[in-house]
Amino acid sequence: MKRVITYGTFDLLHYGHINLLRRARQMGDYLIVALSTDEFNWREKRKQCYFSYEKRKQLLEAIRYVDLVIPEENWEQKRNDVKEYHVDTFVMGDDWSGKFDFLKEEGCEVIYVPRTPEISSSQIKEELHSKKDI
Ligand code: C2G
Question: Which chain regions cross the lipid bilayer (predicted)?
Answer without folding.
Answer: none
